[in-house]
């Protein structure tokens, strides 16, 4: 087993570290080396049902804590996460492959949601409504929703958990985290820190599993779970939404994207290259807000492609634990095959490789720039989720907006221009939940994260994030003389 003081190899339920009732386990693999890092419990339906029971039993006492008491627990957890930043980051790099500098950044980013919602816990204000008759008084209060299930992806092993459980715990709801089978160790490590922070038994639970279908079904169909928050692929998001329809469970979905990145002829080209590099190649191209298609105005196309290609050619690929590396491996064979498939399809339809284009050892792939992209290529329509930057040429603003919006997805989008009128015009016309204007890095705990169309339902983070974990209750006081 790998060395890291935060490795825990049991699930965490009701304040206790437990194995699966069946005794079954599964291995956690380092994508950079193929080595087994650790083995964790493979929980089944009965195990997760038990976790739901204990979480539900813990709810009344937890929601009755004052907002300040809950905020203090969150603040302790936040501090413990930051105190353990280096170990957490190393663990994250080991199981998901992202380079150490990015893992360190994710610890800060992930912790920021806990800090933010610790503060928000104290501001879940209601309303007093001017009454419609003299003998009534109308009041609105907000209450915790009940047990929250959080199903999260491997590409942000820490932050996708804290972005969900931060507001849930702040609002007074116990949580059940179902981390991905690729990266359960970071999830268990922060469960250990939640235990140290002093959350009461049953309030924070983490169930590791590879039996996603049965565990997912139980989380959706069990009516003691009052809210499901999911981040992952659109296909699984649709499945979970249909399963939750059986009891009309409240649901938030943060799903796939297909982000366009537009460079207008009046853009600062150096800034655009910097933004494209940050957004395209972060986490090896495996983020939901990653640039997926670049549209560059004909007048600046050659300059942009040349500068982008130089920057991409200079990227150093290697094991994320090596501080020299700027890009790690893809998460698994399936991810690697997807990149190869998108590339082969684009090349067969006339795309040209300017830089990269080849697989390396194991799950590593060369950072790649492709040009002459056309809308019929798969890479122009679907998330490649890998280190390939496909560039297309355009001449007309209306046409590029049409191309950018011509997708079922609507998560992040980006464009570069120095013309303020164009900036407003294009920002308003892009059919996306988030728009980066002269900026490639848009994620922060203080702003609402989420998508339109098939990229999801709801928003996470910011002052808007809390409401998705609370119910609004209307109180009508009658007979007031
Ligand atoms: P995924 O296959 O949908 O997996 C996401 C989570 O769902 C994992 O925990 C996964 O477990 C679990 N899962 C799989 N099948 C399930 C089922 N039948 N029932 C319940 N849970 C199930 O997504 P992925 O490919 O790992 O992640 C990448 C996707 O997430 C991309 O599309 C990306 O754009 C999206 N994403 C979106 C955001 C956002 O905020 N919008 C952020 C990050 C990623 P296993 O891992 O064990 O299969």
Automatic annotation (TrEMBL):
It is an enzyme of class 1 (oxidoreductase). Keywords: Oxidoreductase. It comes from the Bacteria. Pfam families: Aldedh. GO terms for cellular component: cytosol. CDD domains: ALDH_F5_SSADH_GabD (cd07103). Residues 17-474 form the Aldehyde dehydrogenase domain. One of its GO terms (molecular function) is succinate-semialdehyde dehydrogenase (NAD+) activity. Belongs to the aldehyde dehydrogenase family. This is Succinate-semialdehyde dehydrogenase. It comes from Spirosoma arboris. The active site is at residue 254. Its EC number is 1.2.1.-. One of its GO terms (biological process) is gamma-aminobutyric acid catabolic process. The keyword Oxidoreductase applies.
